[in-house]
Design brief:
Blueprint lengths: L7 H4 L4 E4 L12 H17 L3 H15 L2 H9 L3 H8 L11 H9 L3 E5 L4 H11 L7 E3 L12 H11 L6 E5 L6 H6 L2 E5 L4 H4 L9 E3 L2 H10 L1
Parallel strand pairs: 1-2, 1-4, 2-3, 4-5, 5-6
Helix pairs in contact: 2-3, 3-4, 6-11
Length: 227
């Protein structure tokens, strides 16, 4: 992995910024995704009539094999995606704090700012507005835009590129799940991994597809706009 300090000025020339949503645009320690984790487990336990331990095993197995728990549930159990997403996104996002540093950095940063998420659009908007960056984001690409095909499946990236007319060679993708950067890197994007210390964030991580590793998005972007 390369040192971010050497590349701050270079990254300022980026034409399209692609940001993941959860645990990327807000800090991992907000523990908002942990609420979704509980909701997913409860959904599986109710659906399959299993105990919480078995439900979690199934949940994480589907996540690793299919990119999202939802896709596994659709494949094996014909789950209605709209119902599932409405349940698991019915969470309290108040632990997410307004981030004035991130807002200012995004405003000062040249280029388009796009959000590419495996969540749905209503939830993404709630989170972005809670952070206070809604007016700095130029577009949201959600799981329905991807025809319910999640990251890191290549088709999702192809659809994203086509929808927003993105030239990968002029783009940077920022993500907390390392393996979701593999297709981006293959397509020619520069890649930034937000290392939250999460087991799932590290899964299938190699230096080959990560250009820069950071711990805090706001501070890194501030370095870029101040360089």
């Amino acid at each position: 992995m390369k040192s971010s300090q050497k590349l701050d000025t270079d990254y300022y020339q980026t034409k399209t910024w692609v940001f993941d949503l959860d645990n990327t645009l807000y800090p991992h320690h907000s523990n908002v995704f942990a609420q979704m984790d509980v909701k997913m487990g409860g959904y599986i336990a109710d659906l399959l009539k299993v105990d919480p331990v078995q439900a979690r095993i199934i949940q994480k197995d589907y996540l690793m094999r299919y990119g999202t728990t939802l896709r596994g549930l659709m494949h094996h159990h014909n789950v209605d995606p709209h119902h599932y997403l409405s349940v698991v996104h019915d969470i309290d996002i108040s632990p997410i704090e307004e981030n004035t540093l991130l807002r200012q950095s995004l405003k000062d940063l040249p280029g388009r700012k796009l959000v590419f998420t495996n969540a749905d659009h209503p939830y993404a908007e709630r989170v972005i507005n809670r952070i206070g960056i809604g007016d700095t984001i130029d577009g949201i690409f959600d799981i329905h835009d991807a025809y319910l095909i999640p990251k890191p499946t290549q088709d999702a990236y192809d659809t994203f590129i086509k929808k927003f007319n993105v030239n990968p060679k002029d783009a940077v993708m920022v993500e907390d799940i390392s393996r979701n950067l593999v297709p981006a890197k293959t397509m020619g994007m520069r890649t930034v991994w937000v290392n939250t210390g999460s087991k799932w964030g590290h899964h299938e991580n190699t230096d080959d597809h990560v250009d820069i590793e950071i711990n805090d998005l706001s501070q890194w972007l501030q370095k870029i706009v101040s360089a």
